[in-house]
Amino acid sequence: MNLSYDDADEAFRGEVRAFVAAALPEATRRKVLGGFELDKHDMQGWQKALHRQGWGAPSWPKAFGGPGWTPVRQFIFDEECAMAGAPRLLPFGLKMVAPVLMAFGSPEQQQRFLPAIMSGEDWWCQGYSEPGSGSDLASLRTRAERRGDVYVVNGQKTWTTMAQYADWMFCLVRTDAAAKPQAGISFLLIDMRSKGVTVRPIRLMDGGCEVNEVFLDDVEVPVSLRVGEENKGWTYAKYLLGHERTNIAGVGLSRRAVADLKELAARETIDGAPALADPLFAARLAEAEIALDILEITNLRVISEDAKGDRRGPGPAASILKLRGTEIGQAISELAMQAMGENAMPFDRDRMVGEVAGNRDDAAAAATPVAAEYLTLRKTTIYGGSNEIQKNIIAQTVLGL
Amino acid sequence: MNLSYDDADEAFRGEVRAFVAAALPEATRRKVLGGFELDKHDMQGWQKALHRQGWGAPSWPKAFGGPGWTPVRQFIFDEECAMAGAPRLLPFGLKMVAPVLMAFGSPEQQQRFLPAIMSGEDWWCQGYSEPGSGSDLASLRTRAERRGDVYVVNGQKTWTTMAQYADWMFCLVRTDAAAKPQAGISFLLIDMRSKGVTVRPIRLMDGGCEVNEVFLDDVEVPVSLRVGEENKGWTYAKYLLGHERTNIAGVGLSRRAVADLKELAARETIDGAPALADPLFAARLAEAEIALDILEITNLRVISEDAKGDRRGPGPAASILKLRGTEIGQAISELAMQAMGENAMPFDRDRMVGEVAGNRDDAAAAATPVAAEYLTLRKTTIYGGSNEIQKNIIAQTVLGL
Amino acid sequence: MDFDFTEEQQLLRQTVERFVADRYDFDARRKIIAQEPGWSRAIWSDLAGLGLTALLVPEAQGGLGGTPVDALAALEPLGKGLVLEPVLASAIVAATLIESAGDAAASAALLPDLASGERIFAPALYERAARYDLSAPGTRARRQGAGFALDGAKTAMCGGGAADVFLVSARLDDGLALFAVPADAPGLLVQRERGYDGTPVATLLVDDVKLGADARIGADATAAVARARDVAVAGLAAEAVGAMRQTVALTADYLKTRQQFGRPIGSFQALQHACVDMFVASEEAWSAAILAAARCLDPDARTRMRAVAAAKATINRCARLVGQKAIQLHGGVGMTDEYAVSHYFRRLAAIERLFGDTDYWLKEYARAG
Amino acid sequence: MDFDFTEEQQLLRQTVERFVADRYDFDARRKIIAQEPGWSRAIWSDLAGLGLTALLVPEAQGGLGGTPVDALAALEPLGKGLVLEPVLASAIVAATLIESAGDAAASAALLPDLASGERIFAPALYERAARYDLSAPGTRARRQGAGFALDGAKTAMCGGGAADVFLVSARLDDGLALFAVPADAPGLLVQRERGYDGTPVATLLVDDVKLGADARIGADATAAVARARDVAVAGLAAEAVGAMRQTVALTADYLKTRQQFGRPIGSFQALQHACVDMFVASEEAWSAAILAAARCLDPDARTRMRAVAAAKATINRCARLVGQKAIQLHGGVGMTDEYAVSHYFRRLAAIERLFGDTDYWLKEYARAG
Predict the structure, then answer these.
(1) CATH, residue D177
(2) Complex ipTM over 0.95
(3) D276 touches C at CB < 8 Å
(4) Share of chain C above pLDDT 70, in %
(5) Whole-structure pTM over 0.95, yes or no?
């Protein structure tokens, strides 16, 4: 039982820290730390910089060009990047479609897609959710009819994050309408430039448009872009769910949020003193930070278990990390709102776009990122299997209820 | 819209206060305020004193010998009695079997039983719950077979409060095993001195034994002691559930608990100052007291609605009052535990019995009632339709879910 | 003891309800938001036509001489409609400020316009650094000839973005003074924004703003400011209840409609119970709004303080619970700007912070003893 | 980075688990409770035989020289069995106090008996008025000849009712001193009680208790007392996790068994989710116990303080949640003395208050920064 990183891991942390400090563009860093909107250039630029360093795919094994890091090192890497204000690596390519391709894709598919994911060239989005199927994913209705060498796909996907930037979408479609819901699904890779693909942005309450509806009208997809067997798509999708356990809890991001919150609470005042010194505020902050300390231990326990074997399937551990990670993230953002009080009101999304003003006298520029963060984080307990679904999973798999 | 009591009600309050001050025996008052155990003599004595004043049955209409008070006056009466340290009137006779007898009993049953309830002569207990049927009351198994002029009753009841003191038990029994669960139930009145009735006390975790198991072995019950029609007992039982809305929230008791808590927190210290002055403790106390202030308004809203018509059936209002009333009562007892800290540990139930020592240097005598209260109040969210059941009721009846 | 509205109050409530139903449904509101300035002078005129702007103004100044309970009847349906126009700011808070200051000349000069809706007033009492403390603003007034000059910075997060006149509190001779400052006064820099809830807000930079003697309203403003704050809490509570009730209704409807796993999601007990928690909270909030309306002008300071503190602390807790659970129960669709519930969520989040957050009022309640 | 027990630790854990399973099931425990004094010297001897009493004692004094992580391995199963005998008090807290005081003579005089289980030691550090503050007791020591005389009052809510020797903290010359006081010392009035959790507790009246010079342990006791408190939190956390895990298991079993409305109540989603909350809390508690065990002796004061504070605040929150939900999910049967879950509830309630409640540790954590 030893909570300290060994010397080699500490050295690795230093290496990551030094690299990020040197390679992360200052403009990008300032946007991330200021809570401003990142554009594709910011995100892709960082992915490419990592790729040049050989770190483009931190979670991949060496066989596929990854660095082959242990889960502990992946965790350290994520934490250092988050604390330093690096953009979060988009999971859709790196952590979602890539593992499926590695496990079930053909050698041709692997060769064609994996390198471009790692280099940041190809952007991916996830075509799972549909208007009628949220938590009940298996009820999806998008249909793919086989006509010779192509599938003709018709239907609608929604909540498709980053679809506006994506080159490819991995997609669940129904290939056998007669089968039981989970038995007739296939896993297709769709070129977003295909004829018949229409992307319509959805404005969320934080004012941003990172999610989209994707309409698929007679989209032709070569059969060679089906992953694995026809009608076995559900198996591949399940493989993916809960696959990721090093960063699901978002410890690094919440650490940075706590650091930001402490700075904010040192500036904002309650009863004439810094909010940090107010006994009630201090206690609420301590509660949140303590929960995060404990979550980090829980996360490291899971990671260290993963490192021992290939217990890589979904499991209750991922559910716990997701539940608590999202609750704690939301709690921190609530405290930031409390620290700002009324002054969090002025809201102008436009001032979160472009170059960072950094002007604290501009009330809306100072307030908008705080409120936007509070508003957008509500989604975290909904997506990726809502927290209610996570509790159902634990009830079944752990408690046998 | 007016939250103030009118002059006549205020005068009534004064009258109640003066009477209680004069009539409540000092020994009883001290036991109640000290959180000590009351014996039958304490409770019966108070019931008789009220009866002599004509107040033996505060919630009864004049036609049955009650004072015919409005719901507002009943509320005032309950509040004054609670604040003054009077024993709580046992509901089993006054508020549970009596309304059923008034509505569905024969004139003979009314004449025979109601006066003795009001005078405190007859004590009643409730024979509803069985080991296999808690929230699912309709699944009860105690059977009554008709043999001429008597029912022969066999079965077991449980959680029977005060059965050790009771003269009578009103009881749900199955008279038609073939019918659907709710259709074959009858409502019987059972003399606790009948042959075949055995009472076995259940020790709860607070060390007290106020609930019991009641075993019924070939107990003969005259058919004349069936209330209403055979196999219609479920209707009468439902009539009773949620019937009581003036005192279900326990506002008066919680007010006294808050007053006690404030005294306690003025004596106990945190960081060298009274606990009351500790910012965190003060905020938690304020939260609880505010919730109680709001509950009181909600309760008065319901009462004032009741006073307008005879909307006397069960309803979501009773569920809200029960939910919040019990949660707030528990919260107050938790704060009392917090105020005592480690010093709440020494526990000796025997020192809660008999004359009040009132010796604060006796650590166990000071601590036991506080801990016992915390422990015993856990039952309030379980009994009388658990809080989960109350939420089911609201979901169905109000929200239509 | 009586929890009913009078016939007049019922009529008022129904009138506002009908107005919201007819003229301020979700689509109408979205159209207003889509344009600058994000609220509508035309709607404001209509609201004035219904008498809402005159509600608390004494009859002598062309008002209806109403009470906080009248405001309760009127503002609850406004909250249900998420009405953006600054009724609370002008007709409730500013009217109370002016009237409570006990200054006949100022009342005569300002209240008729306020009552008619001709000019929109907004309080500018809070400041960034002072947080919820109204008693000691950093903004200072100096005497200058017969008049005054003001310097400092204020926030006006309740309706400030729509105001023609700000009622600015400032420190004068170690006391608290109140000034009527036109939005276009030289030296006053009004930064108009929309709040995250869509309402018009403003921050003010007050740079040597010169005012005549008649700009000052009353003498020491301490009592008037406190009174306006208490009445504001009551009004905000009323609005909050309307918003909460509609949020509960939207959510229960959604649970009945939305199908997953072959059945309506409202058949899942965990979701049912969450929705019940919302409903119970909305009922508690109504009790809180009643308490505040009935007691916010109570002559006994402790009674008043406890009632206002209890009410706002409760509104805050319930607003957060109702808003957050509504989003969660709606899932993704609840996050979208297109769907009403996200707007209720944002307004409820704002309500939680306006005129004192939970910790502020818990402390005040404890202080009242 | 390693979250595994060593082979020795695993063996220790299994040994204690087996002991609890074989000798300390619920019925055996009830028999002990049914008799005076409510705990068993025979069991104590057996625990000593397993080496538990010697766990933290240095090898030089006949101990095993173990670490807080060893204690974690041993105390978690003791918590699962709700073992009443004062292992935490004597083998963990008292052992750390004596050893940390750095007094060779006292260690030689006391630790061998402590390690062998011959005498039972309990800390008497807290006082009624000082609450969780250990630094400035009201109990005072005066020098008298070569020895000391003590006056005051102490509480010993961790195992005090079973102690042969109390380790009493007192103020001496404006510093903090620690004394070994036999339970039968003239002038010491030991009021032995059972706690509401059934454990043996005591309150002490210290009335001119005369002690020889050798009764004092070490010089200034501030560091030793703080260290013992931190190690105590780690030990209590371990015990708490055992109790929580068993409570979760009992509750999940009950949900599967108990039938209502024609199906197991564990099929109701609201009850499932409540039980999931309990499970998640028990996992968080285990992380907290690991954190405390690994860091309670960390040389860096801030690291140590944050870890101990975070651990105890978490244990407290989780203990309350697990205990309360367990009773609620069991319904009436959970309230009965006959049924195990009520005993777990009581012990978890006590754990929440021992060695600092939640508010105390939140403040300490905030102070550590």
Answers:
(1) 2.40.110.10
(2) yes
(3) no
(4) 100
(5) yes
